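Researcher: I've been going back and forth with a colleague about how DUF429 domain-containing protein might be arranged in three dimensions. Neither of us has a model we trust, so I'd like an independent prediction. The organism is Sphingomonas rustica, in case that matters for your notes. Sequence below.
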Amino acid sequence: MNPAPAFASFIAIDWSGQAVERPRGLAVARCGPGEAAPVLVEAERGWSREGILAWIEGLAETGQRALVGLDLSMAFPFADAGGYFPGWDRSPADARDLWALVDGMCERDPFLGASGFLADPEARRHFRQQRDCGDLFPGGRGRFRVCEHGQAAAGLLPYSCFNLVGAAQVGKSSLTGMRVLHRLGGRVPVWPFDPVPETGPVIVEIYTTLAARTAGMRRGLSKIRDGETLDRMLAALGSAPHDPLARYDDHATDAVLSAAWLRQVSGRAALWSPPGLTPELARTEGWTFGIAGDGAGAVTSPSSSQARG
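Model: Here is an independent structure prediction for DUF429 domain-containing protein. You can compare it with whatever you and your colleague have in mind.
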């Protein structure tokens, strides 16, 4: 097993698929090595998806050795049905073609939105939308990627990217995120679709609830809305207390905690080579960083295990 890469900066981005210019759900937090708590990176008028895209491009331009976690699913299920959209002649062969398809079909959507893709008569057949369940949506909880089955084995509650109904749905965020990944155009490697570079930044998919569980938050709770709870969770991840935030909403605290989690776990070589991740999955479905995928579930720290009892 290759040693884990080392980073000088750990960045967590809470994402949003909301069809507005500056979604309230976008939040960026950053920390360096050591114990100092992550801090929120603020944009003057609030973050937009275009703004975050430009900011990540800036990391590449300056060569910063950053691990960037995006809280979204980077691809749709593929392995379960032998394709993303079985029966559709435009169904892509791999994730990069998927990102290109989504971005191209949404070129008229402002703010890197994704309504154009979901309005397509063939694409919409695979999704469950409000008052519009496609005839190819399989029912129940929908289709899942292999790593999402690993999330469930870890005690998490994943949602299908094809389900666009409910507050916990992740499909819209994922589609807008795919547009950003396509526009990065390979300038920032995305694990596991790309090898981890020896220099510069790399992007990984994260699941902010996994960070909360690792920090000791009990099942059924995953959101932090006060400073005392945030400091307790940060301490479980080896972080010093944070400086007071201007707001303690789900998005800000998710980003802060997830940046500290990335710093704690990124040095574990096993996370970069999970047993369930095959070359085919690395090309088509991707993987959630921190999920073992071998039945062992999520990686936890001694402190978090004690906190859960």
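Researcher: What would you highlight for our discussion?
Model: I'd start with this: Residues 9-74+184-308 form one domain. After that, consider the following. Confidence is low (pLDDT under 50) at residues 295-309.
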